[in-house]
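Q: I'm writing up a methods section and want to include an example of the input and output format. Could you take the sequence below and give the corresponding predicted structure tokens, formatted cleanly so I can copy it straight into the document?
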Amino acid sequence: MAKNTAHKVLLCFCSAVLSNIVTGNVGANSCSNFSLTFDNFSMQHQEAVQCAGNITGQWNDNQIADLLNSLQTLTDILQENLKQFCQHFKPKRCPAPEPISDGGIVCVSINKTGYCKPMCNEGYDFAFLRRSRLYETCSADTGFKWTTQYVGGNRLAICNKFSAPVAGFESAYFPKDQNCLQTKSNSDLEKNLIKQFIDELKIKDDVPTKNVCLIC
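A: Here is the clean output for your methods example:
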């Protein structure tokens, strides 16, 4: 019973988000009788996480795979929606940086130039040495292309599993037990990270909120 309820909530949430993306109208779909506010869904999700150890032992492998498939669909939808919030920080003609698996990118746009600093989560390091390049830029001066070590234009860095990070600046790594998503889920942590990058760029003027973003 608990499995069916959790599965139904997840599928309804996915359906509601998809409907919102396609039509902009959640009320017309079959999930309109569900309360899908962030607070309600977050609370149900946290309860499911806390109780998972007691519940999942009662399920067979097909049921677990079914729920994992639903969770992957939900994750894909949320990640796609998350990208929307970082579309406007950069100069219009610059491509959006590609999110980094096992890391993130903190970005600031000022004076028609986009500055993006790749960062790796704890336990990961850059594939190339980056001690001489804290950030990448994109502007008219670069032909509206990112100054990157990779071919393709919008991939700024790759973070590989590595126990002792040495390839980048000290500030290019998320603190222990604080990966990119954990940082972005806490507005104070996100603001502090962005402020640190602004200070590194030696920007004296106030930077509008719309001109900054943390990409996960």
